[in-house]
Design a protein that fits this description.
Blueprint (H helix, E strand, L loop, with lengths): L3 H15 L4 E6 L12 H5 L4 E7 L2 E6 L3 E6 L5 E5 L10 E7 L4 E5 L6 E6 L23 H8 L6 H5 L10 H11 L10 H23 L40 E5 L2 E5 L6
Antiparallel strand pairs: 1-6, 2-3, 3-4, 4-8, 5-7, 6-7, 9-10
Helix pairs in contact: 1-6, 3-6, 5-6
Length: 275
């Protein structure tokens, strides 16, 4: 599933291509994705100009000049493509198509249909059911060592699943949790409220910032389906220290990387560097 850097990369690509564009026509080529499309969605979008495109957690927010906001989530396989003109035939999984006034065509393709596309009033965005209970962003000022210390102080569960909980912090997915913990020298199996973890939380915050910013700069990580709006792949996967490298030598000490399962997800770490 695309994580925060991938969604941020898509947001920047879409914002650069679509800010100021006017939606002439919307084609909904099925009735739903993971959830049904809102009633009269196509009619509500006709003639609307895209003012700006933002991101909240892994949601893309298209702010329109008619007071509406398109809320979109890529799910596992969703992707947006911006084409100079509409194709003669659409692909099987091209589920949503926006025809712009300038002739360009924006296609949302989603093979597994785990994505979401909804519509709400701009003044209701923060209270929308998808966004209302989201935690602080990991790259924003509210995500501090003091905040993390406070929310983890009663958690004896392992630190890695804890920092992936969307009610604690949004967007630190599996890939970047593995990488940040390695950079901070914290074992993913250490209790979240243990003294060694608490002592290193300021460093962990810095490492989360670094790994996310580096991934955004590299255009995200390509694992199966992720690609930019332009169709190009991300490159951060070439910089992984531990993720996906089970059995391979640690980039620091050459100890073979250990692989375990935590909360149903693969965890990779160096037992020597992350005692």
């Amino acid at each position: 599933m695309p994580e925060l850097p991938e969604v941020e990369t898509v947001k920047r690509g879409l914002a650069g291509a679509l800010t100021g564009a006017v939606i002439k026509k919307t084609l909904l080529r099925r009735a739903n994705l993971r959830t049904p499309f809102p009633k009269n969605m196509a009619e509500n979008l006709a003639g609307a100009r895209i003012k700006t495109i933002a991101r909240r957690a892994k949601y893309l927010l298209f702010y329109l000049d008619n007071g509406k906001v398109i809320i979109a989530h890529l799910g596992m396989t969703g992707r947006f493509s911006v084409l100079p003109t509409a194709p003669k035939e659409f692909a099987t999984h091209d589920h949503v198509v926006f025809i712009l006034n300038d002739g360009r065509c924006v296609i949302y393709n989603d093979a597994r249909r785990f994505g979401v596309m909804d519509l709400c009033a701009e003044n209701e965005v923060l209270s929308h059911k998808f966004l209302a209970e989201l935690a602080p962003e990991p790259l924003e000022k509210d995500f501090t060592a003091n905040y993390l210390t406070d929310v983890l102080k009663k958690r004896a569960s392992p630190i890695k699943p804890a920092i992936m909980e969307q009610k604690l912090v949004v967007g630190v997915g599996n890939i970047y949790a593995n990488e940040a913990l390695f950079m901070a020298g914290i074992s993913p199996i250490a209790p979240a409220n243990s003294p060694i973890v608490t002592k290193k939380l300021p460093l962990l915050i810095d490492c989360i910032h670094k790994v996310l910013n580096d991934a955004i700069a590299a255009g995200g990580s390509t694992l199966r389906d992720f690609a930019h709006v332009s169709g190009e792949s991300g490159y951060f996967q070439h910089s992984f220290h531990v993720y996906g490298r089970g059995g391979q030598p640690c980039t620091k000490c050459k100890t073979p990387i250990t692989t375990i399962r935590q909360a149903g997800r693969a965890t990779f770490y160096c037992e020597k560097c992350q005692k």
